[in-house]
Write a structure and sequence with these properties.
Blueprint: H1 15-26, E1 45-46, E2 51-52, E3 60-69, E4 72-77, E5 81-82, E6 85-93, E7 102-105, H2 108-116, H3 121-139, E8 180-188, E9 191-196, E10 213-218, E11 234-239, E12 242-245, E13 252-260, E14 274-278, H4 285-291, E15 313-318, E16 326-333, E17 336-341, E18 353-358
Parallel strand pairs: 3-6, 5-10, 11-13
Antiparallel strand pairs: 1-2, 3-4, 6-8, 7-9, 8-16, 9-10, 11-12, 13-16, 14-15, 14-17, 17-18
């Protein structure tokens, strides 16, 4: 793979393509997801003691293992063929870097294109989505060498494939710190899904570009899925107006129902999501907010080898979903200072970074 030394690249040639992509992605915000059509969910709460009881989740379980082997970044799925329905993704982070697992449905245009080119679907996606995004990211990093092999060929007139706007965000486990795990439950219809982590290493390479990307097939041919939604103990809603939640959060186990009241495309070409971070001593709101923008050369960088792990300890969350959708996130909280945050530019100014306290004992949080 040939590379050329960094030269100043006039990003004006990319702007028409990025504008067109933003327009395409806007349509994703208007798509309804069937996960929101299964009625109101029940909550099991002991109102006298305010102790939350977790009901066993009977959703199908897929384990995703994130690990580094030398310079290789690896996503291993316990299963890559599952039935439709509610699926719990358990992300095991066996590295010291921060990771997540974002799911996106593969649109028909990509399926047809891969078939026409007689290419493996995942290879086709990497060539026409992952690699062009990496090229764009590289143009934003001063002094970085550009790999012009990552420039699009088949879709050079549009830079990104015209079908990319039909790839619907389908949730998945949020950011989780090193040597830890997190669980998120989402509803998946039949189809093909890309599962990836686009956190960046120390030089700005997306983890997906380095190999942390995989393919998941969902079909009722693989058995009977779970179509009753899981129970939950607390609710979080996210919209263009910000993140809203009940601040009376006690220590212990919680399953949060995260509802996407609406969706939009921000200047970083993505929608909003919800992540939980433990605000360790010395962690600032400004530091967290700056890190959440992947277009920032210093944003979303987590590299154990370079001792750049990110702003603090992430505990999971729910990745971007379409308007009206809900996902479920399970976590055990100890007393301390936490924050809900969305991976968008300047989340604090957009009411998407909300700090709260989990108190000791039975006192209510705030």
């Amino acid at each position: 793979m040939s590379t050329l030394k960094y030269i100043p690249v006039d990003l004006l040639f990319l702007k028409p393509f990025l504008l067109a992509l933003a327009v395409l992605l806007t349509f994703m915000a208007c798509n309804d997801n069937p996960s929101s059509s299964y009625g109101d969910l029940n909550t099991s709460i002991n109102s006298e003691s305010e102790t939350h009881t977790i009901v066993n989740n009977t959703a199908y379980v897929v384990e995703i293992t994130a690990r580094h082997v030398g310079d290789d970044y690896i996503f291993e799925l316990s299963e890559d063929e599952i039935p439709s329905g509610w699926t719990t993704f358990r992300l095991k982070n066996e590295s010291h870097s921060t990771h997540f697992a974002y799911l996106a449905s593969v649109p028909q245009g990509a399926l047809d294109g891969a078939s026409d080119d007689e290419a493996e679907l995942l290879d086709y996606w990497i060539q026409h989505v992952t690699n062009p995004f990496q090229f764009f990211m590289d143009t934003l990093i001063p002094g970085k060498e550009l790999n012009f092999d990552n420039l699009p060929t088949k879709y050079e007139d549009t830079f990104f494939p015209p079908w990319f706007g039909d790839a619907l965000p389908s949730g998945g486990p949020g950011f989780v710190g090193g040597m830890s795990y997190t669980e998120t439950t989402v509803y998946l219809e039949e189809g093909e899904y890309v599962v990836e982590c686009y956190v960046k290493n120390a030089v700005g390479d997306f983890h997906s570009y380095l190999g942390m990307i995989n393919l998941l097939t969902v079909s009722d041919e693989y058995g009977n899925g779970q179509h009753e939604p899981p129970m939950y103990t607390s609710e979080v809603t996210v919209s263009t107006q910000g993140i809203d939640f009940d601040r009376h959060i006690s220590a212990g186990e919680h399953t949060f129902k995260v509802t996407f009241e609406d969706q939009t495309v921000y200047e970083h070409l993505l929608g909003h999501d919800v992540h939980l971070i433990r605000m360790d001593k010395g962690t600032s709101v400004a530091e967290v907010g700056k890190w959440m923008n992947w277009m920032d050369p210093d944003g979303l960088i987590s590299s154990s080898s370079a001792n750049l792990l990110g702003p603090s300890t992430f505990l999971g969350g729910v990745q971007t979903m379409t308007a009206g959708s809900s996902g479920y996130f399970h976590v055990e909280l100890e007393p301390g200072r936490y924050a809900w945050v969305s991976e968008i530019p300047d989340p604090h100014s957009n009411q998407m970074l909300k700090v709260f306290n989990v108190p000791r004992g039975g006192a209510p949080g705030r």
